[in-house]
Amino acid sequence: MTGRRILVVEDNPLNQKLVRDVLTASGYQVLVAGTGEEGVRLAAAEAPDLILMDIQLPGIDGYEALRLLRQMPQLAGLPVVAVTAFAMPEDRERATREGFDGYLGKPISVSALPSQVDEFLSGRGADVS
């Protein structure tokens, strides 16, 4: 599924570059936001096919950004995946409870990321810690 647009909401420039480079090499179009607020604005303006959302962000965190996204009717079916270094079972449970469609733990696996994104886009999910 190449050409699909992925919005990466991540404040760490090295993580932004890593994810952008891996997904771009796999044929995805990648948009990057460095804050939750910017992520919400970009999602509303660009209607990506999937959002990879860091939980710990400056300003509003990933949970609040997700709440704002879920209030927008035009983005109702948009899959949003939590990406976080918090890898305890309760972190995964909270992400699910808060409404994320999936969960990826950091550090992200460069080799697995494209197939994980494919699974999230297909609706099969790919929860990975």
From TrEMBL:
<dbReference type="InterPro" id="IPR011006">
    <property type="entry name" value="CheY-like_superfamily"/>
</dbReference>
<keyword id="KW-0597">Phosphoprotein</keyword>
<dbReference type="InterPro" id="IPR001789">
    <property type="entry name" value="Sig_transdc_resp-reg_receiver"/>
</dbReference>
<protein>
    <recommendedName>
        <fullName>Response regulatory domain-containing protein</fullName>
    </recommendedName>
</protein>
<feature type="domain" description="Response regulatory">
    <location>
        <begin position="5"/>
        <end position="121"/>
    </location>
</feature>
<dbReference type="Pfam" id="PF00072">
    <property type="entry name" value="Response_reg"/>
</dbReference>
<feature type="modified residue" description="4-aspartylphosphate">
    <location>
        <position position="54"/>
    </location>
</feature>
